[in-house]
């Protein structure tokens, strides 16, 4: 593989993770927590970025060095564990994808006035068309790059229009007046939880960027992925803060959409339609691709029918949306559930990182990275259990 091809694969993997993370749930979570925490949400974002980078560096390194997908590594760590991990990932991916399809439908409704269910069906056909293309991987890579850059530009415009209190943000990011652990759990789950944890690393494996010689490539791609997602999260946070800091309440039924409308009027509402559809359709593609990547190596027949499985995954998501809809609370809950998956997934990768039978004898996983990874597993497990207990109380 030449240097240009490797570089393109690294960038594509980073955008796959970022755009997979930035779905309708991402937009909703950011708006809801900004309204609750105001400028203190900046601290939550900062902590989330640190946890995300540590998790991704550990996971991507092990997958790239071992040249195996996460479910196969988990089965090597403990027989049968890979099937459990695959089941959790696919279930979480499906839950998120229902919201993604719904978001795509709502985006088209805003832009064209079509019924959201019809818009969801149109978006479904477009996503399926990408995977039916002759060069599906190339089409997917280009789509997510274009949509990712478009979203950043549009959200920047709304943040500029909303005029957020930047001084308060800087102060509260390092010295928060309040801390919400549930928000940290939800954001980590929405950014690197569930299927998103492995999206970029699996894409690198499929693109042939694997082996000991590509460890640095994995590091660059992982950090870039979190950087891109964090830029989008931060800019959206600033846009929302500029609105709520002036005492304006967000629409509980559509908190993210009301940020755009209040900040920029009907133009902002139209911009939100574009952002929502871009976020949704790119997440549909990412969720379907990564979820199926957890199934295809479990049996030879599944590998031979990879594209059919992806298409079926998208169709099931669309059919489910037409039956149950998309409550805001479901999207936030899905992020929290995927956050609970992260301690298991990262824990398995940390064990694998120190097994020569998996990573080979030439590779030495950095001790500092292992230590930080253990800290993330412990903290996310604690936050997850605490949040569940608080919810039951």
Automatic annotation (TrEMBL):
Keywords: Membrane, Transmembrane, Transmembrane helix
Range of residues in the leader sequence: none
InterPro entries: NRAMP_fam
Sequence intervals crossing the membrane: 37-60, 81-106, 118-135, 142-160, 180-201, 222-250, 270-295, 307-324, 330-352, 368-392
First-listed, main subcellular location of the protein, grouped into a coarse class: membrane
UniProt KW Secreted keyword: no
Topology term for the membrane: Multi-pass membrane protein
Keyword Membrane: yes
Location within or outside the cell: Membrane
Protein name in UniProt: NRAMP family divalent metal transporter
Organism of this sequence: Parapedobacter deserti
Lineage: Bacteria, Pseudomonadati, Bacteroidota, Sphingobacteriia, Sphingobacteriales
